[in-house]
Design brief:
mainly alpha; DNA-binding
Length: 121
DNA sequence: CTAGTGACTGTTT
DNA sequence: AAAACAGCCACTA
């Protein structure tokens, strides 16, 4: 387990708050934690996810600035894309998410409420 | 303390 | 649109 209060544990804590069907970017997470230039370190943190945390941290909801699933060692982006699809996240033909629509921001209302009203028009 | 190591990102080819 | 580059960073050996 990462030390309480460490950058890594704070990344996990934040990602846990991302709702189903919504995504955030590495850079966004870094910025929200007060380290706007630590996007890469966020990826490093998620890469080390294991044990019980794997089941408690919705790591699939973190994508890169282009809205795509980043490449990594081990397994391909298949699993992450599948997990997101299962939550209702749509991908375009380039395998990218429409961040304008799916990006989650704590301040911004979710799919229910004002946002739905806004999208109708 | 020094040197890598990437689930990153904005800029430039 | 895609690839190469160059900063950036927490973490690890």
């Amino acid at each position: 387990m990462p030390p309480t209060g460490s950058f890594v544990s704070r990344v996990y804590a934040l990602v846990r708050r991302v709702p189903r069907g919504r995504v955030v970017t590495y850079g966004q997470v870094a910025a929200m934690l007060g380290h706007p230039r630590a996007a890469r370190a966020v990826g490093t943190a998620l890469r080390k996810l294991d044990g019980p945390l794997l089941g408690n941290v919705p790591w699939q909801r973190v994508v890169n600035a282009a809205g795509a699933v980043s490449r990594r060692e081990g397994f391909g982006p298949m699993e992450q894309r599948e997990r997101l699809r299962r939550e209702g996240v749509r991908f375009d033909r380039h395998g990218r998410v429409d961040l304008e629509r799916a990006r989650w921001e704590p301040s911004r209302p979710g799919r229910s409420g004002a946002a739905r009203e806004r999208d109708r028009s």
